[in-house]
Amino acid sequence: MKKISLLCMILVVFSVLLSACGFGPSSALSGPKDSGTIVVGSKNFSENIIVGDMEYYLLKAKLKGVNVENKPNLGSTAVLWNALQSGQLDTYVDYTGTGLVDIMKMPVTHDPDEAYQTVKKEYPTRYHIDWLNPMGFNDTYAVAVPKTIAEKYHLKKISDLAPVASQLVFGGEPDYFTRPDAYPGLSKTYGLHFQSLKQIDVGLKYQAAANNQVQVLDVYSTDGNLIRYGMTVLEDDKHFFPPYYAAPIVRESTLKAHPEISSILNSLQNTLTDSSMQQLNYQVDVQHKSPDDVAQQFLKSKGLL
């Protein structure tokens, strides 16, 4: 019994130490935030951390007389969304497809403007949160091939694959071949019949393409590995994949208190393309540069800092 009590005491002390050091669950969001502070958050992947850092450095430089705090790498969409609704965060960058399907539980749309206009219209009424202007890039699902394959078969768009698909192997994660919004729908929409389909772990698929084990991959359109492995993203000319355009979302109460936030963050409108976001992700994920350095350098290159 004493051993159990001692063990419990050790675990409690260890948990307290972890929390004090910032390693406990949601430790970055513990307790109410200072009402005079604007808090920027970001999700737990490089791209969202980079664009969150852009928000932070812009607001820090241009929002005069206001303390701005950055809380990067907080977790999943659910963590960020709950923090935004509760007032622990004031803003983060989200994606139109995420807002439409994951938050609002609405059907997928393949029209980028419809997706944006829907979330922009519905969020203020439902959640008292505003969507600002899109940053320009679309982090959606995509199909890519090595540049050598693109040149050999003259591939620029997904429909170009149809006549030559029987000579190529398509590689993707196991669930990609069963989800209706992935390969089954893609192959039906474009009339694709590949030589074979190869299931590959997400961490191995680019190497498989480099080794010519597969010639066509499912990818994310802004992945930095596309640059690392010399991949060409094919245009989704039949608009099969849903839009995931990135834009800052901000609490209405925050904008009411500081209306200048809109113009500050809207200076990011259309500053990023899929290709330039790939490059920034490449710098962080492959070259191991820090997201905040990458964000600041980008803002300076655009004359925003």
From TrEMBL:
- Give residue ranges for domain ABC-type glycine betaine transport system substrate-binding: 37-300
User: Example GO molecular function term?
Assistant: transmembrane transporter activity
PROSITE patterns per the UniProt record, alphabetical: PROKAR_LIPOPROTEIN
Signal sequence extent: 1-20
Give Gene Ontology CC terms: ATP-binding cassette (ABC) transporter complex
- Give the Pfam families listed for this entry: OpuAC
Which keywords belong to this entry? Signal
Q: Which superkingdom, per the lineage?
A: Bacteria
Signal keyword on record: yes
The identity of this protein, by name, is Glycine/betaine ABC transporter substrate-binding protein
